[in-house]
Amino acid sequence: MNASHFQERWEIYGFIASYKHLYPIAKMCKVFKVSRSSFYRWYRAGPSKRALEHSLFTDLIKNEFDLSKQRYGFTKIAEQLKRKGHCISRSREAKIMRANNWVSKHKRKFKSITDSNHSYPVCRNLLNRNFNPSRLNEA
């Protein structure tokens, strides 16, 4: 696995932290071209304020999305969160929803496609639900 698979530096650090029991940290840092000191600084610091906010907003958005039976998009969910006192921009919320593949379901209106009141001729029912005739070319 190389560094191009990861988008952010913290993803590299997370990978190193999760595999530190299998491989030496110094070797993984060398492979990913990050310094050991920056990894250890990240490891001791814990999650950032933005990362904590991101996880909080992800939980709130998921809750609202499920309450709406997965019908609300990011605009309506942003309105709901603002009513509840949470300040989040629509673009940030849209990014979170896109990252988690949460897409609103659209309920279609019922449309009748059978017109029973037509003036066209109706054919006789020759088979009368007998789909297995006794000989060939009977029906």
Largest sheet: none
Which regions contain 5 or more consecutive residues with pLDDT less than 50?
A: none
Distance between the termini: 67 Å
**What class do helices, strands and sheet pairing give?**
mainly alpha
Percent of residues in helices? 40-55%
Q: How are helices and strands ordered from N to C?
A: HHHHHH
Strand residues, percent: under 5%
Average pLDDT rating:
85
Question: Helical element count?
Answer: 6
The rounded Rg comes to 30 Å
How many E-type strands? Answer: 0
Write down the overall geometry: elongated
Task: Explain what this protein looks like in three dimensions.
Helix 4 (49-67) crosses helix 5 (74-83) and helix 5 (74-83) crosses helix 6 (90-99). Helix content is 48%, strand content 0%. The protein contains 6 helices and no strands. The chain starts with 8 loop residues before the first helix and ends in a 40-residue tail after the last helix. It has 139 residues and is mainly alpha-helical.
